[in-house]
Specification:
The complex is a heterodimer. By secondary structure, chain A is of the alpha/beta class. Chain A contains seven helices and eleven strands. Chain A has two domains: 2-119, NAD(P)-binding Rossmann-like Domain (Rossmann fold, 3-Layer(aba) Sandwich), CATH 3.40.50.720; 131-215, 2-Layer Sandwich (Alpha-Beta Plaits). A six-stranded parallel beta sheet of chain A has the order 3-2-1-4-5-6, sandwiched between helices. Chain A is elongated and about 65 Å long. The chains are: A alpha/beta, B alpha/beta.
Chain lengths: 216, 130
């Protein structure tokens, strides 16, 4: 597998190092000739000077035989053009872009970049998940704490999304009783089909809380 | 040029100092901001415009802005200034209309010198001439 990484900043350098350690054939392409010698100290000879957006440079770097092109410069417009040229001019099947401004994510997807990574989105999602989404939050303990009322917000990755409630193996003595979908409260029965974004309220014995979390 | 011909023109520019170069009676609306930023583009009225022309110094900035105008805002006439003939060629192929200033100038000079007829603007975009 031949991987070309464009952009010799922190992300590009560490990515190239990791790929080299994993035994991949990698080339790091960097526009600024002034930092090439320091890049060579860090990662050896797998470095080339050149503008990764230029067709001539792309040809010299071997875009035509690359399996993956990764664009990780600090400029979204450069990363977009690198990936588009890789795909349209050289037929590279996998293109991966770092997206610095998360509002540009849709454009990268729309224009056929295989994968886009926004650090802002990743960090935001981590924080949000930590706070509520995908986590079961105890709302109240009933009857000396043996039974809890809990809530969980379903995400695209929740195993219960798309299933009927009776198809879910909820722990014994627990019950999904109610859900909030948008602004609408729904009383849940076996024939309720769960959707992404549903806020589900359940009664569960304290000991079974994690089991419930796993099936939701 | 367009404003003087009676069209409604908004100039979007990142550096307010550059706007001063328009002079006093340019008759354009001016917006200061990054042309790749959705909010700025909407402030400039991209949702209701008939044409979007992008001519910053950066080829990639122009190509990205042009594609935002085309894909997100469905602007009918979109044109990008692209200095690199090869890049312009590739994007013309995928439906982003690019003009290469050097090719255009040289091509028109050629026509003037040889008495060739001035063809449509696309005829000055030929990669073979680069």
């Amino acid at each position: 597998m031949y991987v070309i990484v464009v952009g010799g900043g922190q992300v590009g350098v560490h990515l190239t190092k990791r790929l080299l350690q994993a035994g991949r054939e990698v080339l790091l392409l960097e526009k600024d000739g002034g930092i090439i010698s320091s890049l060579k100290v860090q990662i050896g000879e797998s470095v080339m000077v050149g503008d990764g957006c230029e067709a001539q440079t792309q040809k010299r770097a071997g875009f035509q035989r690359a399996d993956v092109v990764v664009a990780v410069t600090g400029d979204d417009e450069d990363n977009l053009v690198i990936c588009q040229m890789a795909k349209n001019t050289w037929g590279v099947s996998r293109t991966i872009a770092r997206v610095n401004d998360p509002t540009h994510m849709w454009l990268f997807r729309e224009l056929g970049v295989s994968s886009s990574v926004s650090a802002t989105d990743v960090l935001y999602n981590l924080i949000e998940q930590e706070i509520s989404v995908g986590t079961v939050i105890p709302l109240a303990a009933l009857r000396m704490g043996n039974i809890e009322v809990v809530e969980a917000t379903l995400t695209a990755r929740s195993p219960s999304v798309g299933k009927l409630v009776r198809e879910i193996e909820i722990p014994p003595k627990s019950n999904i009783v109610w859900l909030l979908r948008g602004d609408e409260g729904i009383v849940v029965d076996g024939d309720t089909r769960l959707q992404e974004g549903d806020l589900v309220v359940a009664l569960v014995p304290t000991a079974s809380e994690s089991a419930l979390r796993n099936v939701l | 040029m367009m404003a003087r011909r009676g069209h409604d023109v908004t100039v979007l520019e990142r550096d307010p100092q550059n706007l001063a170069r328009l002079g006093d009676d340019h008759g354009c609306t001016t917006v200061v901001g990054d042309g790749l930023d959705d909010e700025v583009l909407r402030d400039a009225g991209i949702e209701n415009c008939d044409a979007f022309v992008t001519c910053t110094r950066g080829d990639n900035t122009n190509l990205m802005a042009a594609q935002i105008a085309q894909k997100r805002y469905s602007v009918q006439m979109v044109c990008a200034k692209v200095n690199d003939p090869q890049r312009a060629h590739e994007y013309n192929k995928i439906g982003v209309f690019c003009i290469v200033p050097n090719l255009l100038t040289a091509g028109m000079m050629r026509c003037w010198l040889t008495g060739e007829e001035y063809g449509p603007i696309e005829s000055f975009n030929r990669l073979e001439d680069a």
